[in-house]
Amino acid sequence: MKQYLKYFLFFTLLFTTVYSATRVAYLRPGPMMKIPFTSVRQSPYLFTAGFGSELHNLAPFNVASGAYFSGETSSGWTFGFSTSKGGDTTRVANLEVSTFRAPIEFGFHIQKRIFVKNNVSFSVGLQDIVFENNTGGFSLDPKELSFFGIVSSEKALGDYNTNMFIGFGTGGFGAIDTVQVDTLSAPVTGTNAGVFAGAILNTPYLQKWGGVDIVGEFDGNGINVGLRIPLTSDYRLNLGFTHIEKLPKWKERYWEGHAGITLGFEITAPRGSTIKTPGSGPSPSPLQPGPINMADLDTTLMMADYTVNTLRDSMGLMTNEMRNLMTRLAAMEQHSKFLEDSLKAVRLNNNVGEQKMNDAMRHLSRSLRYFYAGNYRASLQEVEAALELNPNLALAYARRGSIYYKLGDVQRATINWNLALRMDPEYDDVRNVLKALHENRLKSTSMIED
Predict the structure, then answer these.
(1) Distance separating alpha carbons of residues 27 and 65, to the nearest angstrom
(2) Which CATH number fits the domain that encloses residue 202?
(3) 370 with 255, same domain?
């Protein structure tokens, strides 16, 4: 008991002021998404490494991501290191013009298994000893510290293995911000400590590689669910959703405990001989670790380093491609708006043209009344008014030619009749009048009046 009390005092002295932490799923030691993990047995791996990301929005694209490394000693100590970078926490609608750059965080995580009896284990630990690399320099952020104690119970159910957890923690386990709001928002309030719980079910699917794990947990603020799918005995794909109770509000960009889609990839280095534990992968029987082949270990480390670098480059390329797609989409939307404006302009011009045509026809109608009444000057003014509204009316030129002929100006009459025929080559009445005029058989009763 004195030894356990010493551990407790050690962690209590390390922990001072705590607040909510920005946590990316699958970056902490263990197979759970955001809560700690403990087991009655030693981890079957020398180390575990990989990356995790949380997609918080698609339009605009916004993601938080990071990488991690962890391992467990033979004495029950678990050490972990993680680095992460949050998403854009501003409220700018278009992230292309946002000047916000999230700081890069480097976190250390330690815990100790201090009690084991039958299928029950108890561990205490300290997560999120975070150093931030921001504009102010490289500094420790005590607000991220999270002290916890966790109890687990393991049980085999036929081909299935379960590990259930319940624990108490401070800091991030009290009020978690998956994406922190900007500084103009109201400060986050709430308790600095809380209870968390979870379970992991190891299934016999893909058993030769360790089986598919189903993860479910309450992290102190919301419910997270996920799958851990083995690709080989040493590689695993991590999927899931965080804060599924808030998924219906996905389009609301930022709030405390934002829902997210999680994606991660994990690489492990086995100790040699391993045992079956939910969330731990494949399990040959012997309880004691066998000899380690250093050549195989060096090869595995090199492959792990190469894979991590490749995945990091792929994530960068994917992010750039998504931003390029968003830029193209914005350009297409602008082009669509331009086409809509052009269509409106065409419709407006058509409406204006129809209105002018109607006014011109009214002038021609009045000119015809004046023509029948013998008021040729007034009839000519109405024709001129019609041509000002629409200078391409063949009927107006034909009418003006008839008026000039009535006024005795044959030359102007001929010019206007020819203009009417040019406007409408199939204007047979005008063609007949010009032919009769040429043959000196034009009579006043043959004038074009309508």
Answers:
(1) 9
(2) 2.40.160.40
(3) no
Check: CB of residue 375 under 8 Å from CB of residue 343: no
Give the domain CATH number at 366.
1.25.40.10
What's the CA dihedral at 61, 83, 241, 189 to 10 degrees? Answer: -90
Do 25 and 50 touch, CB atoms closer than 8 A? Answer: no
Pair (43, 115) in one structural domain:
yes
Side-chain-side CA neighbours of 418 within 13 Å: the count stands at: 8
- Look at the block and give the residue holding tokens 């308790």: 191
In terms of Cβ atoms closer than 10 Å to its own Cβ (0-12, 13-18, 19+), residue 209 is: middle
Using omega within 30 degrees of 0 as the cis cutoff, is the peptide bond preceding 204 cis?
no
Instruction: Confirm whether pTM is higher than 0.70.
Output: no
121 and 254 housed in the same domain:
yes
Q: 199 and 78: one domain? A: yes
Domain ranges, residue 360: 356-446
Give yes or no: residues 403 and 281 share one domain: no
270 shares a domain with 163 = yes
Question: Considering its fold, how many domains does the chain have in total?
Answer: 2
Picking from 292, 309, 342, the residue at the C-terminal end of a domain is: 292
Cross-strand bridge partners of residue 81: 69, 108
Q: What is the CA radius of gyration of the chain?
A: 41
- Give, for all 450 residues of the chain, the pLDDT tens digit: 445 444 444 443 333 333 333 468 888 898 998 899 999 888 888 889 998 888 777 766 778 888 898 998 888 899 898 888 777 655 544 555 566 667 778 788 899 999 998 899 999 998 877 777 666 666 776 666 788 999 999 998 888 999 999 998 887 666 544 444 444 444 444 446 788 899 999 999 888 888 999 999 988 878 999 999 999 988 999 999 888 887 776 655 554 567 788 989 899 988 864 445 566 655 544 344 455 566 667 787 888 888 888 988 999 999 999 999 999 999 998 898 889 888 888 888 777 778 888 999 999 999 999 998 989 999 999 999 999 999 989 999 999 999 999 998 999 999 999 999 999 999 988 898 888 888 877 664 345 655
